[in-house]
TrEMBL record, chain A:
SMART domains: HTH_XRE (SM00530). The keyword Lyase does not apply. SUPFAM superfamilies: lambda repressor-like DNA-binding domains. PANTHER family: DNA-BIDING PHAGE PROTEIN (PTHR46558:SF4), TRACRIPTIONAL REGULATORY PROTEIN-RELATED-RELATED (PTHR46558). It comes from Alteriqipengyuania abyssalis. The lineage of its organism: Bacteria, Pseudomonadati, Pseudomonadota, Alphaproteobacteria, Sphingomonadales. It comes from the Bacteria. This is Helix-turn-helix transcriptional regulator. The keyword rRNA-binding does not apply. CDD domains: HTH_XRE.
Amino acid sequence: MGKRSPITNRVRELREEHDRMSQAALGEAVGVTRHTIIAIEQGRYSPSLETAFRIARLFGVGVEDVFGWEGE
Amino acid sequence: MSFREKSAWVMGAIMLATGVFYAQLVAGAPQAPVIGPLIPYVLAVVVFSIVAQVGLAIASPKEANAPADERERSAIDRAGNWSGVVLGFGVVSAIIMYIGGWTATMLVHAIVGALIVSTVAEYALQIYFFRRAV
């Protein structure tokens, strides 16, 4: 449901690389709900810059390693 | 389903049911003093809302205490914006009808009706934006 964002992400992949971190745990760590993490992973929601940085820092990578632009 | 979406479903249903109750009271005595149907309506909204919110909070205490996150805030803000448009349209329509010959009693009922419809619209739009992910 809803239009997909042109912003792509590797959140699910990075979660699985980090001991299969749950969506709830990631949400709690970066200050959003599990439902927002689900929406981000499905490309239905583009997080704020602050949340994008929080997610990237949590995984120890740069923002550009987590988020990208469709087709690039 | 998130806590806030559950809350929107429940509050929307309460506002819809109590709105129908209010409409029935008004239809039964359209020219009676405004306060007549208003008091039982307000009491019903307050009582049912408190009971529903307490029930939801008991069922999900952690989520109930957490503030809305950025996606939820955005959905709530957008729904509030559009419900304001609905309320404005209803109020202006009621004023036009009053100028056209409605009594002051009917004007008040129409404005309360617009408030009820805009509140139901707000909860419905919240659900829509939560699901659409904003």
